[in-house]
């Protein structure tokens, strides 16, 4: 078995962004780019406030703040290199097979859901980011594959937005659509019950993805405290952490899920165009769950 070393992933990441974070000054006390990156990664991993990070790395809070801004900007440039929805048929086939192996759900290219990230917004923006049960939040929507890799992520919506609103503005809780299968609210037949069980097992991949993401980067979990930045900066932090999550998967850097699951507080919303989606769902139930499961 190949041993995974976090240092390898970090050094490769540093090589990718070093031109943007290494200093060009001849000053003898200039902070090396690698130290800047390590300081920011420590913040992502722990959620520790900047004055503590500064003490650990030997620089003051203002310097840490500047490093965060510089490193974030550099990492943001790399995001879509590491987060991308597959476009080739061979990749689609592999993803479908991986999902089918979980519980027999056919033709699945991704599992989608939303998660919340707590932060403290400016006073004049508090209302739009306030969630009535969970404080001030950014609502983050992501799509993952069966191996917890993030294929797509949207980070620009406030916590007051319903999940289905985010979905509709990108193109159960979500309304059923021809390309989006949802749970049956009241399954009656054995086939419908089997469909729901398979749906739940398959959908768990996105919940596990969020669990791993927030265990790896505690700054995104409420246990790490509320982020003290603007909505725009928080959105970039989330985006970058999603990218780093994929990089960690590529390097086989496993992590145990240690944060508690988040409470689902959003109401059911069936959307406005569910009839055709319901027809597709009925077809899937009839073809794949009315008879014993067949190999893909």
TrEMBL record:
<dbReference type="GO" id="GO:0046872">
    <property type="term" value="F:metal ion binding"/>
</dbReference>
<comment type="similarity">
    <text>Belongs to the HARBI1 family.</text>
</comment>
<feature type="domain" description="DDE Tnp4">
    <location>
        <begin position="112"/>
        <end position="246"/>
    </location>
</feature>
<keyword id="KW-0540">Nuclease</keyword>
<keyword id="KW-0479">Metal-binding</keyword>
<dbReference type="Pfam" id="PF13359">
    <property type="entry name" value="DDE_Tnp_4"/>
</dbReference>
<dbReference type="InterPro" id="IPR026103">
    <property type="entry name" value="HARBI1_animal"/>
</dbReference>
<dbReference type="GO" id="GO:0004518">
    <property type="term" value="F:nuclease activity"/>
</dbReference>
<dbReference type="GO" id="GO:0005737">
    <property type="term" value="C:cytoplasm"/>
</dbReference>
<keyword id="KW-0378">Hydrolase</keyword>
<dbReference type="InterPro" id="IPR027806">
    <property type="entry name" value="HARBI1_dom"/>
</dbReference>
<comment type="function">
    <text>Transposase-derived protein that may have nuclease activity. Does not have transposase activity.</text>
</comment>
<keyword id="KW-0539">Nucleus</keyword>
<dbReference type="InterPro" id="IPR045249">
    <property type="entry name" value="HARBI1-like"/>
</dbReference>
<protein>
    <recommendedName>
        <fullName>Putative nuclease HARBI1</fullName>
    </recommendedName>
</protein>
<dbReference type="GO" id="GO:0005634">
    <property type="term" value="C:nucleus"/>
</dbReference>
<keyword id="KW-0963">Cytoplasm</keyword>
<dbReference type="GO" id="GO:0016787">
    <property type="term" value="F:hydrolase activity"/>
</dbReference>
């Amino acid at each position: 078995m190949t041993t995974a070393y976090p240092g390898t992933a970090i050094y490769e990441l540093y090589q990718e962004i070093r031109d943007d974070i290494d200093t060009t000054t001849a000053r003898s006390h200039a902070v090396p780019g690698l130290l800047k990156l390590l300081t920011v990664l420590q913040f992502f991993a722990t959620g520790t406030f900047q004055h503590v990070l500064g003490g650990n790395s030997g620089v003051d809070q203002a310097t840490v703040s500047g490093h965060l801004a510089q490193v974030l900007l550099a990492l943001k440039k790399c995001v879509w290199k590491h987060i991308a929805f597959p476009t080739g048929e061979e990749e689609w086939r592999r993803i479908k097979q991986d999902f089918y192996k979980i519980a027999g759900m056919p033709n699945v290219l991704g599992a989608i859901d939303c998660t919340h990230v707590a932060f403290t917004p400016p006073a004049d923006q508090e209302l739009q980011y306030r969630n009535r049960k969970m404080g001030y939040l950014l609502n983050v929507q992501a799509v993952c594959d069966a191996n917890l890799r993030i294929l797509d992520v949207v980070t620009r919506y406030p916590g007051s937005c319903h999940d289905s609103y985010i979905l509709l503005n990108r193109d159960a809780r979500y309304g059923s659509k021809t390309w989006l299968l949802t749970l049956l609210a009241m399954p009656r037949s054995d086939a419908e019950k089997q469909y729901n069980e398979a749906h739940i097992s398959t959908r768990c991949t996105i919940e596990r993805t969020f669990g791993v993401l927030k265990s790896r980067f505690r700054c995104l979990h409420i246990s790490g405290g509320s982020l003290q930045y603007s909505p725009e900066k928080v959105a970039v932090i989330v985006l970058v952490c999603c990218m780093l999550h994929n990089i960690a998967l590529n390097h086989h850097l496993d992590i145990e899920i240690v944060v508690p699951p988040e409470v689902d507080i959003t109401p059911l919303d069936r959307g406005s165009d569910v009839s055709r989606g319901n027809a597709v769902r009925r077809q899937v139930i009839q073809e794949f769950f009315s008879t014993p499961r067949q190999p893909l």
